[in-house]
Structures are given as structure tokens and as C-alpha cells.
Design brief:
Distance between the termini: 95 Å
Number of domains: 2
Order of helices and strands: HHEEEHEHEEEEEEE
CATH topology of the largest domain: Mannose-Binding Protein A, Chain A
Strand content: 15-25%
Pfam families: Lectin_C
Number of strands: 11
InterPro entries: C-type_lectin-like (IPR001304), C-type_lectin-like/link_sf (IPR016186), C-type_lectin/matrix_domain (IPR050828), CTDL_fold (IPR016187), NKR-like_CTLD (IPR033992)
Keywords: Lectin, Membrane, Transmembrane, Transmembrane helix
CATH class of the largest domain: Alpha Beta
Low-confidence stretches: 186-194
Shape: rod-shaped
Mean pLDDT: 81
Radius of gyration: 39 Å
CATH superfamily of the largest domain: Mannose-Binding Protein A, subunit A
Subcellular location: Cell membrane
Membrane topology: Single-pass type II membrane protein
Largest sheet: 9 strands, mixed
Length: 194
């Protein structure tokens, strides 16, 4: 093979190489710029969408109602605070203990409050603020208002207590834990008001 033929062969190879590259890589600078621009637009849309979602979520949090807390050791439900005692006393001393902290033996006006107390209590029975003179008399709360929540009170005792299965009655001298309640004098406020 002569030098001339060798050079011609090499030059033809380079020409073929350029043709192969032109066939396999059809990416022009304009196409590359368009792809980069599309990627940047998609990233920007994601950032804007996430920002809007976070703003909406934080706004929803701002609109939630916040209840002012009950005293330490008390549990809030609705507009009331409840205290579940650690110690045990008879019904009369339990009422005196509740009164000494500005409360009464637990009173509830709704079935939701009763369900809350039943769920929250532990394995012990707790005195509540219902009593009656005898099994022939109507149940009254410690403030002398009549019982207006429709539920069954089991037993024939003159004082009511909360059990795992609902409300029962027993003798006033039996020693049990107590639940005190008081109306939360602080009104509920919205974070928007702050």
C-alpha cells in the first residue's frame, strides 16, 4: 500500500466517523437549550407548588381553635377541667376535697363528657357529683340541679361513681377515688385573635 492510498484510507475513515456521529447524535445546541429550559421550568413549578401547599397548611393551623389550659394536673375537655385524684375518700370527704380547690365532684351535661371521663379513667372507680336521698328519690348534682343526661345508673346506693362499664351507685361511706370538675373560666380563642 502506498503512502497516497494509506492517506486516502485514513481520510475516508475520518469522514465516515463524522458521518456516524452525525447519524447517532442528532442533538443540536438548540435542542439542548430547550431541554435545559424545560427542566428549569419544571423545577420552578415544583418549588412554587410546594410553597403554596406549605402556606395553605400553615394557614389551616392558624385557624384551629386553641383552648386555654387547665391548672396543672387537670385535664381539659370542652369548657371544663377535670381532676382525677390519686387518693381515696368517702363521697362526702371527696366533695369537700373538690370544694377546697374551687371545684365540685364531677358533673357532666353531655354523653360526650361522660364518654370522655369513662375512657380517661384508669382501673379504679371514681366518685362523681350525683347523689340522692334514697332509691325512691331523683338523682341530683351537688349544685341541686337534676340529672338531664339519659343514662342508666346501676345499683341502689345513694351516691354515684364511675366504673369501666358506666355509672353505678353505692353507699356514701365507701372509700373511692374522686373526679373533680370545674368550668374553665377562660374562653376558647383563635390564633387569629393573637
Amino acid at each position: 500500500m502506498s503512502y497516497y492510498n494509506l492517506m486516502r484510507f485514513v481520510l475516508q475513515g475520518k469522514g465516515l466517523q463524522k458521518k456516524c456521529l452525525a447519524i447517532t447524535s442528532s442533538v443540536t445546541p438548540a435542542t439542548l437549550c430547550c431541554c435545559i429550559l424545560i427542566i428549569l421550568i419544571l423545577v420552578a413549578l415544583n418549588v412554587v407548588t410546594l410553597s403554596v401547599l406549605l402556606a395553605v397548611r400553615s394557614r389551616e393551623t392558624d385557624l384551629q381553635v386553641v383552648y386555654v389550659t387547665c391548672p396543672k394536673g387537670w385535664i381539659g375537655f370542652g369548657n371544663k377541667c377535670f381532676y382525677f385524684s390519686e387518693d381515696s375518700e368517702n363521697w362526702t370527704l371527696s366533695q369537700i376535697s373538690c370544694t377546697s380547690v374551687g371545684a365540685v365532684l364531677a358533673q357532666f351535661e353531655t354523653e360526650e363528657e361522660l364518654n370522655f371521663l369513662t375512657r380517661y379513667k384508669d382501673i379504679f372507680d371514681y366518685w362523681i357529683g350525683l347523689s340522692r336521698e334514697s332509691s325512691h328519690h331523683a338523682w341530683k348534682w351537688t349544685d341541686n340541679s337534676k340529672l338531664n343526661v339519659p343514662f342508666v345508673i346501676q345499683g341502689t346506693g345513694e351516691c354515684a361513681y364511675l366504673t369501666d362499664s358506666g355509672v353505678s351507685s353505692g353507699k356514701r361511706y365507701v372509700i373511692r377515688k374522686r373526679i373533680c370538675s370545674k368550668t374553665n373560666s377562660n374562653v376558647s380563642i383563635s390564633l387569629d385573635a393573637l
